[in-house]
Amino acid sequence: MRTITLRRSLVALFVAAISFGATQAQAQAESDSVLRIGYQKYGTLVLLKAKGSLEKRLAEQGVEVKWTEFPGGPQLLEGLNVGSIDFGVTGETPPVFAQAAGADLLYVAYEPPAPTSEAILVAKDSPLKSVAELKGKKVALNKGSNVHYLLVRALEEAGLKYSDIQPIYLPPADARAAFERGSVDAWVIWDPFQAAAEQQLQARTLRNGEKLVDNHQFYLATRPYAQQHPQVISALIEEVRAVGEDSKADPDQVTEQVAPLLGLSKEITAIAVKRQGYGAQFLTPQVVAAQQKIADTFAALKLIPKKLSIQEVIWTPPAAAKVAKAQ
């Protein structure tokens, strides 16, 4: 009887092992055949999604594209961290916070600077006339987003410490509501939310990023996906670059296309479109150094728990890897 029971147990374990192996194989096959992209309400990925050229190109490689929208960069990178997406785009700061939290990500490419597409805003009737007057005031921002660094640098420029203000951490929709109610004194925000507030609420700009920050947009991928599918990543960046070039050549057409996707007027959308940087490129030493400075700044402020090495999380395109290997 014991022998029969033992045999049954061994058979059950064998079946379970086979089932587990099949499940793992199926999951691997699915990851090989699907590219999951995270995007935000605005940016080149929105244009790429609308164009549909990526889907056509990757279909030739047997890869399906799935899109997921996120309210901001920190939320998108959390999606990368937990494995719900493979690729996405954010501003400068979210990758720093994500790397500090242990996310296994790689910087893939970046867009040219767009320093005017983020700003510190105040209400049209606010008595505040300068960043220096934010001392002791409540300032709304999305923690860990691109505007977080803008705020730090603007305060520094004005002779203030980060501890001199009261940061109120809110995602864009909640921050706008608080801004409209007057429950915060200022709002640090990016386009198209910035353009919408300027036009709809007549919000005033205390400081944008001009001559202060680059406000690069970064394309990032999970390390496993980028390493296992370099040709897919390369094709994706080529398509992003092509859409960017089209956008630079005809911003009016982009405005027509994007306005209904954003649910904003053409006037507001046109402002945001013209302030954006276009022309995705793989990372240069200069951009890596600039990003390292941001990471060092947040480490010094104790807003992240440790120092980081940005160079350790830079993806190398296949062509560049071949050249390096040959040398």
Description:
InterPro entries: ABC_SsuA_sub-bd, Solute-binding_3/MltF_N, SsuA/THI5. The chain has two domains: 25-113 and 216-266 and 277-326, 3-Layer(aba) Sandwich (D-Maltodextrin-Binding Protein, domain 2), CATH 3.40.190; 115-208, Periplasmic binding protein-like II (D-Maltodextrin-Binding Protein, domain 2). Strand 6, helix 6 and strand 7 (166-169) form a beta-alpha-beta unit. It has 327 residues and is α/β, with parallel strands linked by helices. It has helices at 2-33, 44-51, 53-59, 73-82, 93-100, 146-157, 172-181, 193-200, 223-228, 230-249, 251-262, 266-275, 285-300, 318-326, and strands at residues 34-39, 64-69, 87-90, 105-110, 118-122, 138-141, 166-169, 186-190, 204-208, 218-222. Mean pLDDT is 89; it is low at 13-29 and 321-327.
Fraction in beta strands: 15-25%
CATH fold-level assignment of the largest domain: D-Maltodextrin-Binding Protein, domain 2
**Main beta sheet strand tally, sense and closure:** 5 strands, mixed
The unreliable regions are 13-29, 321-327
| CATH level-4 homologous superfamily of the largest domain | Periplasmic binding protein-like II
The whole-number mean of residue pLDDT values reads 89
Widest β-sheet, arrangement of strands: 2-1-3-10-4
Look at the structure and give the CATH class of the largest domain.
Answer: Alpha Beta
- CATH A-level architecture of the largest domain: 3-Layer(aba) Sandwich
Proportion of helical residues: 40-55%
Looking at how many chains there are and whether they match, the oligomeric state comes to: single chain
Q: What is the first-to-last residue Cα distance?
A: 68 Å
Secondary structure category = alpha/beta
Structural domain count: 2
Number of strands: 10
Radius of gyration: 23 Å
